Amino acid sequence: DAGVIQSPRHEVTEMGQEVTLRCKPISGHDYLFWYRQTMMRGLELLIYFNNNVPIDDSGMPEDRFSAKMPNASFSTLKIQPSEPRDSAVYFCASSRRAGHNEQFFGPGTRLTVL
Amino acid sequence: AQSVTQLGSHVSVSEGALVLLRCNYSSSVPPYLFWYVQYPNQGLQLLLKYTTGATLVKGINGFEAEFKKSETSFHLTKPSAHMSDAAEYFCAVSDQGSGNTGKLIFGQGTTLQVKP
Q1: Which of A33, A34, A38 is nearest to A89 (CA)?
Q2: How distant is the Cα of A31 from the closest Cα of chain B, in angstroms?
């Protein structure tokens, strides 16, 4: 299995631009998670899906952030408009409920907003 | 609700010395416990996990952890540190307190520095 795939690996954009991060979970996994990691705040759970349905988006910082999962093999996290404080590494992870909730993480997308 | 506390945000050891990273958890049900490692500029990868059975769990790269219910602890150890062990380590518990939400609850992370 290829593992969790994220794209792009690096993104540099200017303030005000729209940013879309992409994730392909491991085939057969029920859950998909989006995390953000910064030096100041550590690892934060933004939103997660179960069977393509958003379950908990309480970690999404504000309305500028949105996430979708149109099918079991693809999810996006969109920031519009982006701000410098959104600069962080964004991780996608997936898991099977039957697997004791063990999560498998992607390599992350490093976002820099200038 | 489940929670995890990692004692010490930074731990520094000499190469060849014992590594001990502390993790205490709170759980209303028998927990599933995990240690993840994050090397620089990489994602988190599973080091080891405890679900049921033997309380001493062995993981990759010579790490092991012991589940101690009476102490609500799941400390990570390695007898002899190697320079390549320098990384950030996260303890996590499965969120199953009031129905399984499917989430993991992560600790704040501990950065391990290994000095030559």
Answers
A1: A38
A2: 7
- Token pair in block for residue A62: 């504000």
Distance of CA A97 to the CA centre of its chain: 19
* Contact yes or no for A97 and B100 at CB 8 A: yes
- Any idea which residue has 């930074």 for tokens? B10
Segment B1-27 mean pLDDT: 94
pLDDT of residue A97: 77
Nearest to A100 among B36, B45, B94 (CB): B94
Contact of A33 with chain B, judged by CB distance below 8 Å, is answered with: yes
What average pLDDT does the segment A30-47 reach? 93
Distance of residue B83 Cα from the nearest chain A Cα, in angstroms: 22
Q: Is B115 within 8 Å of B13 (Cβ atoms)? A: yes
CB B78 within 8 A of CB B18: yes
Structure tokens at A54: 């958003």
Residue A98 has pLDDT above 90, yes or no: no
**Could you tell me which of A99, A109, A1 has the C-alpha nearest to residue A46?**
A109
Residue B59 has pLDDT above 90, yes or no: yes
CA distance A107 to chain B (A): 5
Which pLDDT value is given to residue A111? 98
What pLDDT, in 10s, does the model give residues B37-55? 999 989 999 999 998 889 9
Name the phi and psi angles at B30, rounded to 5: -55, 125
